[in-house]
Amino acid sequence: MSTANLSSQNASEVRSGLRLRWVRSLLRSPVGLLGFFLVSGAFLMAIGADFIAPHDPAEFNFRSRLEAPSWLGGEPGFFLGTDQLGRDLLSRLIHGSRISLLVGVLGVLISMLIGVTLGLVSGYVGGFVDSFISRVIDTFMAIPFILLALAVVGVVGTRGGNSLVILVVVLGLTGWVTFARVVRGEVLSVKNLEYVEAANALGQHNFFIIFRHVLPNFTASIIVLATLQIATVIIAESSLSFLGLGVQPPTVTWGIMLADGRDHLATSWWLSTFPGIAITLTTLGMILLGDWLRDVLDPRMKT
Questions:
Q1: Distance between CA 180 and CA 225 in Å, rounded?
Q2: Distance (Å, rounded) from C-alpha 182 to C-alpha 185?
Q3: I want to staple 104 with a disulfide (CB 3.0 to 4.6 A). Which of 12, 92, 153, 233 is the partner?
Q4: CATH code at 47?
Q5: Given this model, what pLDDT does residue 126 score?
């Protein structure tokens, strides 16, 4: 057998071993398993919304308005009841997961791109560049994330057909600070290690050193932080949509559903309760999954 075939076989065995170790670790962790099922359920619901939802989420039926859930004596066919316009709440809940998860994932990707880049530059270059970026980070850290997003959205506005794009960009541009702070600290802890100094002595380009020798040391930390940050962005999107500053109707989001039901809490509690449960379970799943990933990926957490 040739050397190339042996290398390919060994690499395949290593990948299989890693997958098996991850599966065993997940099965041994009740917290990770619960988080995995909650997050997987939310994403599967969002991906298959067109096939899972029993009704059109935008279909009006005024004869069935404010119907209680069918298991509480409401009209059959509306498992979670209907809203003030007679729209099926379960269908709207399923379709609303798409926007909430889309905003969460895309917003975090933008934040991660900006924050990781600035953190790498700040920590590795040092000097005036590090001081300037650090002061910017400190300034943004002094302002609560949701308050900063609220202020930016209030200035930019989300009216019109581009409300989803604007909201994603705003949340991405206001959530990068956490990534930058964590990455900067990680870079400072590894940039003076022997192999990094050896790469410098060999005349390798800084760009190559950063992405080949420095960044791989804390990729796991970035993945864990991104998972936790998605939960934060989902809550921020729901809060802004609840206040009328997020994604605009007729697009369905969990935050809009909460806002629609706040005037009927005394008589039709299900309008706000079920979207609130969906937000809680999804963000809880992200947090639990992030905790499990931290335990698996961070060797310092192993005993």
A1: 11
A2: 5
A3: 233
A4: 1.10.3720.10
A5: 81
Q: What is the residue range of 173's domain?
A: 3-301
The residue behind tokens 């409401």 is 74
pLDDT on residue 109: 93
Q: Helix/strand/coil (H, E, C) string of the chain?
A: CCHHHHHHHHHHHHHHHHHHHHHHHHHHCHHHHHHHHHHHHHHHHHHCHHHHCCCCCCCCCHHHCCCCCHHHCCCCCCCCCECCCCCEHHHHHHHHHHHHHHHHHHHHHHHHHHHHHHHHHHHHHCHHHHHHHHHHHHHHHCCCHHHHHHHHHHHHCCCCCCHHHHHHHHHHHHCCHHHHHHHHHHHHHHCCCHHHHHHHHCCCCHHHHHHHHHHHHHHHHHHHHHHHHHHHHHHHHHHHHHCCCCCCCCCCCHHHHHHHHHHHCCCCCHHHHHHHHHHHHHHHHHHHHHHHHHHHHCHHHCC
Q: What is the mean pLDDT of each run of 10 residues along the chain (303 residues)?
A: 48 55 77 90 90 86 83 83 87 90 91 91 86 87 77 68 77 86 86 76 75 80 87 86 78 85 83 90 90 72 48
Number of domains in the chain: 1
Distance CA 292, CA 181 (A): 22
- φ, ψ of residue 198 in degrees (nearest 5): -65, -40
List CB contacts of 177: < 8 A, sequence separation 6 or more. Answer: 115, 137, 140, 141, 145
